[in-house]
């Protein structure tokens, strides 16, 4: 991966946060006032039976590589005609002003990618005080090409980052990660939450259920197995074309 690609990856990368939504994630510039990221970074999403309810945070702020804070709004609102942002987990933010001293990443037009192909991404994993960049490889691709598996350390907070090929083009948006707590631990955490209202004993001033709950939560937040997944950038490209968004 050459130095220009790495430099552009970092200059395009932003931290996205919402105090209202207690959300932190990553994004990248696709124009001097438009940023791509994940929908779950900028909105609260809840499943209610077969229905999915969502609400976009109204206090979104982006932080550029040089530390500039700029307010932004989400312009990719899911609706009955275009539900892709919700189901393919992408969002487009528009800043309140054009931002200078950044890199704008081109979106790849390639339809196929190779296993073991070198890739990189930059982002803001939770708990890190600085932007972190990783170089890795493509380790798998779903048959419908919707998801690209990445062999590189992927943590919470990386969501919304640009997955970049060696030509410096965006081929995907970091969206999921392998790892965190297992299904068994998730089930255990749910049982703790469900029974906590019934009370608990303390041993030497320590509530064992609460301590276990905090341990599971910390593991889920910070531990990565080194495998992540990116949504194919074609979903974002098709949405941009369909809705006449100018880059």
Commentary on this structure:
The protein has helices at residues 3-12, 39-42, 84-87, 183-195, 208-222, 234-242, and strands at 13-18, 23-29, 34-37, 43-48, 51-56, 61-63, 69-74, 91-95, 118-123, 132-141, 147-151, 162-165, 170-177, 227-232. The chain is α+β, with helices and mostly antiparallel strands and 247 residues long. The strands form three sheets. A six-stranded antiparallel β-barrel has the order 1-2-3-8-7-6. A six-stranded antiparallel β-barrel has the order 9-10-11-14-13-12. Helix 4 runs antiparallel to helix 5. The relative contact order is 0.18. The model has no long low-confidence stretch (mean pLDDT 89).
Task: Average the pLDDT over all residues and give the rounded result.
Answer: 89
Distance between the termini: 26 Å
- Gyration radius, rounded: 19 Å
- Proportion of residues in extended strands: 25-35%
Main sheet: strands, sense, barrel:
6 strands, antiparallel, barrel
- Strand runs, count: 14
Keywords:
alpha+beta, six-stranded antiparallel beta barrel
Topology:
Blueprint: H1 3-12, E1 13-18, E2 23-29, E3 34-37, H2 39-42, E4 43-48, E5 51-56, E6 61-63, E7 69-74, H3 84-87, E8 91-95, E9 118-123, E10 132-141, E11 147-151, E12 162-165, E13 170-177, H4 183-195, H5 208-222, E14 227-232, H6 234-242
Antiparallel strand pairs: 1-2, 1-6, 2-3, 3-8, 4-5, 6-7, 7-8, 9-10, 9-12, 10-11, 11-14, 12-13, 13-14
Helix pairs in contact: 4-5
Short description:
Helices cover 22% and strands 33% of the residues. It is built from six helices and 14 strands.
């Amino acid at each position: 991966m050459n130095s220009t690609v790495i430099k552009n990856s970092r200059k395009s990368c932003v931290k996205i946060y919402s105090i209202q939504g207690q959300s932190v994630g990553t994004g990248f510039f696709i124009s001097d006032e438009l940023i791509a990221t994940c929908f779950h970074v900028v909105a609260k999403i809840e499943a209610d039976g077969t229905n999915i309810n969502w609400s976009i945070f109204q206090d979104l702020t982006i932080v550029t590589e040089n530390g500039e804070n700029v307010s932004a709004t989400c312009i990719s609102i899911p609706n009955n005609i275009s539900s892709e942002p919700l189901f393919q987990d992408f969002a487009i933010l528009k800043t309140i002003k054009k931002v200078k001293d950044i890199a704008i990443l081109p979106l790849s037009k390639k339809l196929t990618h190779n296993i073991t192909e070198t890739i990189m991404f930059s982002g803001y994993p939770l708990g890190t005080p600085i932007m972190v960049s990783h170089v890795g490889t493509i380790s798998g691709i779903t048959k419908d090409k919707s998801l690209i598996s990445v062999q590189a350390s992927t943590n919470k907070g990386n969501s919304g980052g640009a997955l970049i090929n060696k030509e410096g083009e965006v081929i995907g948006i970091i969206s999921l990660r392998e790892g965190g707590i297992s299904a068994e631990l998730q089930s255990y955490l749910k049982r703790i939450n469900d029974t906590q209202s019934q009370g608990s004993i303390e041993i030497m001033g320590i509530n064992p259920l609460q301590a276990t709950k905090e341990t599971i939560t910390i593991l889920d937040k910070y531990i990565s197995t080194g495998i992540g997944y990116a949504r194919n950038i074609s979903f974002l490209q098709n949405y941009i074309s369909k809705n006449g968004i100018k880059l």
